[in-house]
C-alpha cells in the first residue's frame, strides 16, 4: 500500500506515541506495515509491552495525567480535552489498569419506528414483514421488549389494542397490513354488516339499489 501525500513519519510516530495500534494507523493514514516500522525505527519509538505488569508500568509512566483523571471519575470528553488522548487509547488504559469501561447505551427504537422499518407494502394494499420471526409469528423488538408484529400493525392502523385473535382478512395468508387485519370486534362488525346485507337482499331482491 502506498503512502498518501501528507502521511509523514512524524504523523505515524504521533499516533504510535498516542498508543494507536498498527491497524488504527493503517486505517487512518492509509499506510503499510513497512511505513509504520520505518517510522518507529527512525523516530526511536519502542514497542509497547502488550500484557502484564510491564504494560501497566508503561501506561502509568506514559499517561499519568489521564490515569489520575480516570481514577478521579473524569469523563472521556474532559480527559481528551485536557490530554488530547484518543478514546481508543483511554479504553486500553482502562482495561490494562482494571478500571471500569463505561458502556454506551444503545438507542432503543420505538414500535412505530420498527413498523416503518419492517412493514414492506406490496400488491393491492398488502404488506409483508421483513423483520425477525419466532416460528411463523412475526416478531417486533422495541424498547427492550418483544411484541407480536401483527397485533402492533393492527393497533397502529385501528388506533386501539386488538381484542382476541388477530387474523388476516385478505387472500394473502401472511399479509400484515393493518387494514387487512381483524380482531374479535372487527369480525363481529363484519358479520353484522353481512347479515344486514343478506336481510336487505331477501326483502328487496339482489338488484335493489
SSE order and pairing:
Blueprint: H1 9-17, H2 22-29, H3 33-42, H4 52-62, H5 64-71, H6 76-83, H7 87-96, H8 111-118, E1 119-122, E2 126-129, E3 133-134, E4 137-142, E5 145-148, H9 149-158, E6 167-168, E7 181-182, H10 184-204
Antiparallel strand pairs: 1-2, 3-4, 4-5, 6-7
Helix pairs in contact: 1-3, 5-6
Description:
The protein has 209 residues and is mainly alpha-helical. The protein folds into 2 domains: 9-96, no CATH class; 111-202, no CATH class. It has helices at 9-17, 22-29, 33-42, 52-62, 64-71, 76-83, 87-96, 111-118, 149-158, 184-204; strands at residues 119-122, 126-129, 133-134, 137-142, 145-148, 167-168, 181-182. Strand 1 (119-122) and strand 2 (126-129) form a beta hairpin. Helix 5 runs antiparallel to helix 6. The longest helix is centred in the C-terminal third of the chain and has 21 residues, at 184-204.
Q: Averaged pLDDT, please? A: 84
Uncertain stretches: none
End-to-end gap:
80 Å
Largest sheet: 3 strands, antiparallel
Give Rg in angstroms: 32 Å
Shape: elongated
What's the structural domain tally? Answer: 2
Number of helices: 10
Number of strands: 7
The percentage helix is 40-55%
Quaternary: single chain
Q: Label the structural class.
A: mainly alpha
Q: Order of strands across the widest beta sheet?
A: 3-4-5
What is the chain-wise order of helices and strands? Answer: HHHHHHHHEEEEEHEEH
Percent of residues in β-strands = 5-15%
Brief write-up:
The protein is mainly α.
Task: Supply database-style keywords.
209 residues, 3-stranded antiparallel beta sheet, two-stranded antiparallel ribbon, 10 helices, 7 strands, 11% strand
Amino acid at each position: 500500500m502506498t503512502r498518501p501525500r501528507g502521511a509523514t513519519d512524524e504523523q505515524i510516530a504521533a499516533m504510535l506515541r498516542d498508543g494507536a495500534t498498527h491497524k488504527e494507523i493503517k486505517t487512518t493514514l492509509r499506510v503499510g506495515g513497512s511505513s509504520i516500522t520505518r517510522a518507529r525505527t527512525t523516530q526511536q519509538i519502542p514497542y509497547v509491552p502488550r500484557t502484564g505488569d510491564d504494560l501497566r508500568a508503561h501506561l502509568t509512566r506514559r499517561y499519568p495525567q489521564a490515569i489520575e483523571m480516570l481514577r478521579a471519575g473524569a469523563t472521556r470528553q474532559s480527559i481528551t480535552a485536557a490530554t488530547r488522548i484518543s478514546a481508543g487509547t483511554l479504553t486500553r488504559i482502562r482495561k490494562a489498569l482494571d478500571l471500569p469501561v463505561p458502556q454506551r447505551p444503545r438507542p432503543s427504537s420505538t414500535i412505530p419506528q420498527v413498523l416503518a422499518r419492517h412493514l414492506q407494502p406490496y400488491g393491492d394494499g398488502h404488506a409483508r414483514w421483513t423483520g425477525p420471526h419466532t416460528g411463523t409469528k412475526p416478531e417486533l423488538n422495541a424498547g427492550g421488549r418483544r411484541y407480536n408484529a401483527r397485533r402492533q400493525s393492527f393497533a397502529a392502523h385501528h388506533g386501539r389494542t386488538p381484542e382476541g385473535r388477530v387474523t388476516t382478512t385478505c387472500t394473502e395468508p401472511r399479509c400484515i397490513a393493518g387494514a387487512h387485519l381483524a380482531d374479535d370486534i372487527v369480525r363481529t362488525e363484519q358479520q353484522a354488516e353481512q347479515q344486514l346485507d343478506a336481510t336487505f337482499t331477501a326483502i328487496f331482491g339482489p338488484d335493489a339499489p
